[in-house]
Design brief:
- The strands form nine sheets. This protein has a five-stranded mixed β-sheet with strand order 2-10-9-4-5, with no helix packed on it. It has a five-stranded mixed β-sheet with strand order 21-31-30-25-26, with no helix packed on it. Strands 1-3-8-7 form a four-stranded antiparallel β-sheet, with no helix packed on it.
- By secondary structure, the protein is mainly β.
- Helix content is about 10%, strand content about 35%.
- The protein is elongated and about 90 Å long.
- It has helices spanning about 85-90, 195-205, 235-245, 265-275; strands spanning about 5-10, 15-20, 25-30, 40-45, 50-55, 70-75, 115, 120-125, 155-165, 170-180, 185-190, 235, 250-255, 285-290, 295, 300, 305, 310-320, 330, 335-340, 345-350, 350-360, 370, 375-380, 385-390, 395-400, 400-405, 410, 415-420, 430-440, 445-455.
């Protein structure tokens, strides 16, 4: 009797419903002493016990991973000499039979399995390409053992079986788990940085039963050097599998730190725009922090939902010093003297202020969202500027709020603003009736104005 034990960690217990049309990972741990010539196999059976997918490896610590693939984004060799950590990490998406002729077997889905003395990883392919049911092409177009494309896995119940064999195919250990392929609803669309924001999103999604994907998405290469700086892996494949989450179902979008290069903006939201989904009733809800941040000083942001008629939300008014810069805010608050979050009664005596706010996405012309080869969209139009009317004077400002987090300036957030104003001597002793409107690239007004009253001491 073997003392070897296999544990499946992905799909995790809370993510055993897999969205249709996307690949998924099967990963886990191996305990015990593994014979030198062991083999590993991951199989997927449908509810009629038909074998519909499998991935296997005939060698432990298989070195034949095509890390030279031109689309692979990885750490520089200076950060990981000779890519030692990368090779130990394992990336089954790029395993091949012969590393000297990688393209001969790159598309063979049945060899996309990797295992060591302690872990295993495998890729289970859904659809080979868009002609066979994928939403986006994954950049590889995997084939079965006969060199034929896969039609996408149908909705239903499935069984995953993971087995370790000796060199003559005796089963040393095996484990199984059930999954379901079905659409998900109440999907969270957001960024997960900085730390305080990520903690809020994880807690909030759990409290409100929102769907959040924590399991590794195929194509994504997790950090293997201990630090996280940017997305790694086959990003075309990652985006292809990520977007299937939003193919159907209600979406809950949290507007915070969403920059032009983020998957949230350039793929997920852009895909929904291209399908005119923002005009579908009850398809998308939008949320924001009432004070514009997860945390400002000792004030915690409260999560609020945009009303249907709202397009601009003013979050707070900061009294700032000379360090304050247009559309830039240091989360260490070096530029802030005080902040006002009670917007119904603003009375200030200051020389400079900053107005912080957030914009709700609006459905633009779907033809202005053009899918590119990397599965991001070329976006031809966006809400890009604000017009402030202050005492009949129109002042134009840009949208694009950059935060400084731990000394690092972030990319501009496309739906937020932090506009700095000098308090003109002519304003002293007056109540400023401020109207704020937003406009797109063609100077079309978007939605209704928001209004603010500031009493200047």
């Amino acid at each position: 009797m073997s003392n070897i034990k296999i544990n499946i960690t992905i799909p995790s217990i809370n993510e055993k419903t897999i969205c249709p049309r996307r690949h998924f990972n099967v990963q886990g741990t191996i305990e015990g002493n593994i014979p030198k010539n062991s083999k590993f196999k991951v199989e997927l059976f449908d509810e009629n016990n038909n074998l519909v997918r499998y991935a296997y490896s005939n060698r432990i610590n298989n070195p034949n991973t095509f890390y030279g693939h031109p689309d692979l984004i990885k750490y520089q060799e200076s950060e990981d000499p000779k890519y030692k950590k990368l090779k130990e990490f394992g990336f089954p998406e790029l395993i091949v039979d012969d590393i000297n002729n990688p393209y001969d077997s790159l598309r063979n889905a049945n060899i996309k399995c990797y295992f060591t003395e302690s872990i295993f990883k495998a890729l289970i392919v859904s659809a080979s390409d868009v002609d066979h049911g994928a939403i986006f092409a994954d950049g590889i177009n995997y084939l079965d053992e006969n060199g034929k494309p896969y039609n996408y896995l149908q909705e239903g119940n499935y069984l995953i079986v993971c087995s370790l064999f000796d060199e003559i195919d005796n089963v040393l250990a095996s484990v199984e788990t059930s999954i379901t392929i079905a659409p998900k609803d109440n999907l969270l669309l957001c960024r997960f940085n900085p730390k305080a924001h990520k903690e809020n999103m994880c807690r909030w999604s759990k409290e409100n039963n929102l769907t959040i994907i924590n399991d590794t998405i195929p194509g994504y290469l997790e950090s293997y050097t201990g630090n996280w700086y940017y997305h790694l892996g086959l990003l075309k494949m990652y985006r292809s599998n990520d977007i299937t989450t939003y193919y159907s179902g209600k979406v809950h979008m949290f507007i915070y730190c969403i920059d032009e290069s983020s998957t949230s903006y350039a793929t997920e939201l852009a895909y929904l725009q291209s399908k005119n989904a923002l005009n579908e009733k009850d398809r998308i809800n939008y949320y924001y922090y009432d004070i514009g941040e997860a945390l400002v000083g000792n004030k915690k942001g409260i999560i609020k939902q945009f009303d249907d008629d709202d397009y601009i939300k003013i979050c707070r008014v900061d009294i700032v010093n000379d360090l304050a810069r247009e559309n830039i805010f240091n989360l260490n608050e070096e530029s802030m003297i005080n902040t006002i979050t009670d917007l119904d009664d603003i009375h200030i005596n200051a020389n400079r202020i900053a107005i912080s706010g957030v914009i709700k996405p609006v459905q633009l012309n779907p033809k202005e969202f053009i899918l590119k080869s990397d599965n991001t969209y070329e976006i031809k139009n966006k809400i890009c500027k604000l017009k402030y009317t202050i005492l009949d004077k129109i002042i134009e400002r840009k949208i694009g709020y950059q935060r400084i987090i731990d000394g690092i300036i972030q990319e501009p957030s496309v739906f937020e603003f932090y506009n700095v104003f000098e308090i003109d001597e002519n304003y002293k002793g007056k109540t400023l009736d401020i109207s704020i409107e937003c406009f797109d690239e063609y100077d079309n007004k978007i939605g209704n104005a928001n209004n603010l009253k500031i009493k200047i001491g």
